Amino acid sequence: MIIILRKGSVKEDAQVILDKIENIGLKPLFLPGVERIVIGAIGDERLLETLGFDNFPQVEEVKPVLSPYKLVSRDFHAENTIVKIRDVSIGGHDIAVMAGPCAIEGEEQFLQAAKEVKKAGAKILRGGAFKPRTSPYSFQGLGILGLKIMNEVAKEVNMPTVTEVLEVADIDAVAKYADAFQVGARNMQNFRLLKELGQQKKPVLLKRGLSATLQDLLLAAEYIVAEGNQKVILCERGIRTFETATRNTLDLNAVPYLKMKSHLPVVVDPSHGTGIRSIVAPMAYAALACGADGLIIEVHPEPKNALSDGAQSQTPEQFQHMMERLKDFAQAAKRGF
Amino acid sequence: MIIILRKGSVKEDAQVILDKIENIGLKPLFLPGVERIVIGAIGDERLLETLGFDNFPQVEEVKPVLSPYKLVSRDFHAENTIVKIRDVSIGGHDIAVMAGPCAIEGEEQFLQAAKEVKKAGAKILRGGAFKPRTSPYSFQGLGILGLKIMNEVAKEVNMPTVTEVLEVADIDAVAKYADAFQVGARNMQNFRLLKELGQQKKPVLLKRGLSATLQDLLLAAEYIVAEGNQKVILCERGIRTFETATRNTLDLNAVPYLKMKSHLPVVVDPSHGTGIRSIVAPMAYAALACGADGLIIEVHPEPKNALSDGAQSQTPEQFQHMMERLKDFAQAAKRGF
Amino acid sequence: MIIILRKGSVKEDAQVILDKIENIGLKPLFLPGVERIVIGAIGDERLLETLGFDNFPQVEEVKPVLSPYKLVSRDFHAENTIVKIRDVSIGGHDIAVMAGPCAIEGEEQFLQAAKEVKKAGAKILRGGAFKPRTSPYSFQGLGILGLKIMNEVAKEVNMPTVTEVLEVADIDAVAKYADAFQVGARNMQNFRLLKELGQQKKPVLLKRGLSATLQDLLLAAEYIVAEGNQKVILCERGIRTFETATRNTLDLNAVPYLKMKSHLPVVVDPSHGTGIRSIVAPMAYAALACGADGLIIEVHPEPKNALSDGAQSQTPEQFQHMMERLKDFAQAAKRGF
Amino acid sequence: MIIILRKGSVKEDAQVILDKIENIGLKPLFLPGVERIVIGAIGDERLLETLGFDNFPQVEEVKPVLSPYKLVSRDFHAENTIVKIRDVSIGGHDIAVMAGPCAIEGEEQFLQAAKEVKKAGAKILRGGAFKPRTSPYSFQGLGILGLKIMNEVAKEVNMPTVTEVLEVADIDAVAKYADAFQVGARNMQNFRLLKELGQQKKPVLLKRGLSATLQDLLLAAEYIVAEGNQKVILCERGIRTFETATRNTLDLNAVPYLKMKSHLPVVVDPSHGTGIRSIVAPMAYAALACGADGLIIEVHPEPKNALSDGAQSQTPEQFQHMMERLKDFAQAAKRGF
Lengths: 337, 337, 337, 337
Description:
Four copies of one chain form a homotetramer.
Chain A: E1 2-5, H1 11-23, E2 27-32, E3 37-42, H2 45-49, E4 59-63, E5 83-85, E6 88-90, E7 96-100, H3 107-120, E8 124-126, H4 144-157, E9 161-164, H5 171-177, E10 180-183, H6 191-197, E11 204-207, H7 214-226, E12 232-236, H8 254-261, E13 266-268, H9 270-274, H10 277-289, E14 294-298, H11 316-332
Parallel strand pairs in A: 7-8, 7-14, 8-9, 9-10, 10-11, 11-12, 12-13, 13-14
Antiparallel strand pairs in A: 1-3, 1-4, 2-3, 5-6
């Protein structure tokens, strides 16, 4: 950790800080510059953080040297982590595609969607039972009934499932009926939820928040892993920027960056990342090209009747076509599909 | 609602939509333009939303005419709503200042802070018992113990209190020990929490999310009011932008804009909105000048020993000075203080 | 154009606007709704814009139906435009790669870079003679001398060239020594420069501004095309967002979106779009996968001695490797390379 | 400057850098940490920047200790700089209000506007002759004719003037007819223009770019001051964020931050900063409250007939009312008006 003192600070101002660093058992460094005094501290920065040097009046800026996350870091664990949702691996050689409708609207709709996505080659079934919606007047999901439908349909088509969990109180129900938890963008910093999921055995698909930096995302994953659940899949799903032509700005830079900094698998959601049906497919190809381990795609048997997110849902025909072309891109990326 | 069809759409494409509008009991309008067919629908747009026209393949864009929120709108309720936290009114003639430390760290610290802010003229006591923190390695608050300390200190200094509630499961405890609920920026779209708070009797201070538009904020408030709790106070606390010199970008435009669109009171949090101790005071003055009904300010007896957010906390001396100058700005704004 | 009047507006408020629309020769529509009066105008919206309806006190909002750009729109010109820089086509079947150092630092450096990029398969040589730099204390480019070096090296390696033009006064010099003009991100809305380039014969590579929406970019292109120069290549190079882990946020959504809305070719600059050497290649692959017509890549013979942007420059070895892999992605995208 | 090496770097990797620092005449520091080697360099960082350490493969990150600007810094010049536009001081005790229409549309309109703003108490007359417009189909200003009108009207009402300069080629004309140059947001990083203005004698009102950080703005000012013209006035006019309810997000944090870091005067443009007529006044009050040295306000005799930016222009009556209330806020801020 590097601590820069304000202009005009004197030796005594520095000494207070040097002493605190030494008292905590680390090695302090006194670096008097021409215009500013700089102090260094060698050792575990996470320990230093508790000293709150940025609160000191004589401190202008504190610059950490190490990343604030640890367990999710590639420094800490060099090999790729492979997370399994039932028998489907994510983060290994093969690309995994998760697909299904935004919301589970009923048994017929969900079964039809499930059959279509399975036929096209999707390996994991997705669908929302609990739907976080910006407006209180929008469809809010079928809740537990939706979970039960998901469970039955999944058995019928023999696919593992992933669905969103909104709250600690729902964890048990989701764990009972689905194979993996999804944490939505709006809940990425619902730390209580993250901690509870850290004590679960099933995998967690963690979506990046609309205004979360990649460091924030990795720290959210750290919350889960620190509690003992190492089965975390990171998901880039678009961030909020000034651009309004697309629903969100899909930040594909995140994919190679996260793969460089972390050992966790990374998947991409081009449906929410674009919000425009006709550009979901090219962005799915791009996601594979830059190193994504998987995709999560909204497919609805009849998008124009969808109760949620129809404008970004693929028709079964579009999805089938996309899957065929994805094979070529997976091959170019030297990945299995 | 205005619906613009894609280029090349024909009468039949329009007819499907016109029929749907008529079937739902509203008045459809067919407006064939030179380059595009436009369709209008006259009536309650919230009803139209359920038809999901943006999912139709022939639709290029759907443009709502009305705002998607209703109960919180000034169109619906022209007079200012005054929310009372115990005996302190917010949204009326007088400015209300809420102050206290970011986190309740112990009885001594909190009592000292409470006495200092009361002496300086603050009317409501704030302090966090449950702390949402970006890193799992940071101080997470004292929890229930913190609530109890808050409760006892509040009695001793005779001030109403506000504190953050993180989760549905904590609502009862917060309701028991505090006088108002605070919903933090990261929970602004925790819709389950909003709905439950809508069924409570105590007021809710609703902070704007880091990437929430003002429309998102008003829709979040609508969630609470729609459940029956009309005691909602909106809070601007800074948004996330590309600017990193300050912790957040305090969007004071929000104050007159929200006052124009909504009847709810609006307060400002310049501590989180700036993140820099020395510019909290000027931004507090600015908040009053542009029409804020109140302020929420972090004050710590010894900022350099604060366990959370010390860099943006005022010392008691700074706070006292700020309060004195705020009187002049309240007067210029023709408000009581 | 749809014009929404404020609540409380009456027939007379509407009549003023209806008359103005009629006077200009277009067809007005009066649509009295339940909560708001809406007015429609059928005809060329660009004409309507001159009436400034958003300035009228009774007007709440003006919603255009058509895009404000015309000549660059795919509505106006359905087929892809192919722009040729000397004999290299951009926007057709084949992918075009432009490569070279950020700045021309001297003859030796630039010749070496040119030979390396040509050997690896780049078709167009890039390099900056005039360098816009955030700090006045950074290297500002060799100016005219740089242009002359570019010209000579280009002859020696027989490659067409592209280089940035910063100002109207430099247009002639750039036109004399290079084969295409580059308009940098900071100049995307230097409208005087755009107009002058519209009167030139050589192609223009137009980079998206750091905070430019895609509509802003298309309007900037419209400035050039409206003056007569149809040889415009759009370039996505990253936008400024809250994310600081990467230098910019490369908005690849822009690629399929621009291809959908416009007939102009679209290229991607993953060097500026990421700012991190090791993630340039994966983002180049992604750009091809989502439909880019070309790439512009910074390659420096010795990045660690680069006078500008070394941290994002590829070594010749890295570039050669990237080019080999790009072939596979071009093939997956069914494009020639 | 602090240089952090990548994990796995060894003593030799550090030595190369230590030697370079020593060779340039500065003092290198070798700080081997537990997880990373850190190198420090004591001395003028602007010198170190030329060494391009961030280009070295062994370097993970370079963290500057000092700000990259110098001449505009308060460290360098502790007292407030007062800039005079003719006889009106900006940056001293008194608040200066600049007002007038967005565009000069003709002699009659401009004279009427000038008389109105003078009557209400504005000290400086503003108006645009050269208008940068997003669309090529919008009104582009009267050019030289506009400058001449400005000049004559200014004589008649005896007010100093400020107007935008778009290009180096126009500097002489603007210098001839106006009393101060305005650099618009889109030109804030038109470095050639900044350098030329640095050689002029008249003051420069430098507007912050739509996506410019405060550091970028200070570096743009440094360009001007480094060439010899110290008469620079900084102007906050709103930045581009995800919020679309207002035209821009007026970042008033910028005011106390810039006053803390720099000795230059700071003014605020609430007209562009909001884009909504009815919230310009409250934001003007807020600007004074947080420490602005002046305001620049759009006033049009008949906003609904304005050729540019009518929706954000004040009527003369609104402006007069605003000026009366501004007096109270100036007094609260202990400033003259």
